[in-house]
Amino acid sequence: MHPVRWLLLAPFLILLPGGCANFPGQSAGKPMQTYMLAPAPAVPAASPTTATGPVLLVSTPQAEAGYDSRRMAYTERPFELRYFASNSWADDPARMLEPLLVRRLEALGRYRAVITPGAGADAGLRLDTWLEALVQEFQATPAQVRIVLRVQLTDLAGRRILASERIETTAPTPSADPYGGVIAANRALEQALDRVADICAGATGE
């Protein structure tokens, strides 16, 4: 190569490795990887046909700012939220949460039916859920995923709140990368869903 051309290209060649470095497990131009929230299902406690409890309406979960999109959030220091550039959820986490809540509560075998908005049936109870956090935290080793849910169970007929609780669960990541975070997220979510089921069962005394 001509010496002049080499000198012109040299600065770009020196900067190239730094420009390709991303945090963690990312690289420039990497195809987008998408992941599911799909924790292990609970073992049904009873056949739905034998349940005689009230109809439970699971309202559409809402998400706090920062967690209301498909972006996968992580943090390295307090108060700062970042997102993986080439990794995302298959859908908004709050939307993926709705069918998981329904299946977990159906597995209790305590409700005549567990429905979602638009089902066209009258419900005696309503469960409202807010996703306050779903974040992979790298402040310590090993990294962990933290999930925070706020739930409220309401007796619609009596117009009273039966239970209101903030649930926080964590799970360590098997690897310090986005896929390790996905595995940990599903483990932490399994714990959170079990806690939601306990709250609903305890509040109704079923």
UniProtKB/TrEMBL annotation:
InterPro entries: ABC_trans_aux. Keywords: Signal. SUPFAM superfamilies: XCC0632-like. Residues 35-197 form the ABC-type transport auxiliary lipoprotein component domain. The lineage of its organism: Bacteria, Pseudomonadati, Pseudomonadota, Gammaproteobacteria, Chromatiales. This is Cholesterol transport system auxiliary component. It comes from Thioalbus denitrificans. Residues 1-21 form the signal peptide. Pfam families: ABC_trans_aux.
